[in-house]
Amino acid sequence: MSAPDAPLDWVELSGRRAKGRRPDYFDNPALDRLYSTVFALAAEVSALRERQDTIERLLDAKGTLSRADIEAYEPDRAAGEERGLATRAYVARIMRGFQQEVEALEASDPPIMDVVERLSRE
After folding, report:
1. 0.85 exceeded by the pTM?
2. Model confidence pLDDT, tens digit, residues 47-81
């Protein structure tokens, strides 16, 4: 473990594991690992999109930029709202396949009252 004022070691932090067993969501452990990897990559892309947005905004405002400008940048309310909308749209695109599966499952199940009514006639 490093001293309190030492810079964070992101490589070390990324290798840490949560206590306890990882939850299983699928019967095939390879699917769990695949989805975990895909979502980790999606999070990285999201972070890169925010950093790119920072760079574009700084270039628009100043015409030049430095790494210090990028690191110090804090979006104002309007920029934060734009980023929030963009992130929600990005997540919706990523999750659309899952959403379509849920919608298909919901569409294939008749409402319970329809089932009750049909059974009461039989």
Report:
1. no
2. 999 999 999 999 999 999 999 999 999 999 999 99
What is the C-alpha to C-alpha distance for residues 117 and 102, in angstroms, rounded to an integer? Answer: 25
CA distances from 58 to 13, 45, 69, 77, 79 (A): 30, 20, 8, 16, 12
The stretch 3-32 carries a mean pLDDT of: 78
* Rounded distance between C-alpha atoms, residue 22 and residue 32, angstroms: 10
| E strand or H helix that includes residue 121 | helix 112-121
In a domain, 65, yes or no: yes
Nearest Cα neighbor of 39 from 104, 94, 77, 89 is 94
Q: How many domains does the chain contain in total?
A: 1
Q: Which of 40, 17, 37, 41 is nearest to 29 (CA)?
A: 37
| SS3 of residue 111 by DSSP | coil
Q: Has residue 34 been placed in a domain? A: yes
Domain-located, residue 33: yes
Q: What angle do CA 35, 41, 47 make, to 5 degrees?
A: 140
> Residue 7 falls within a domain, yes or no?
no
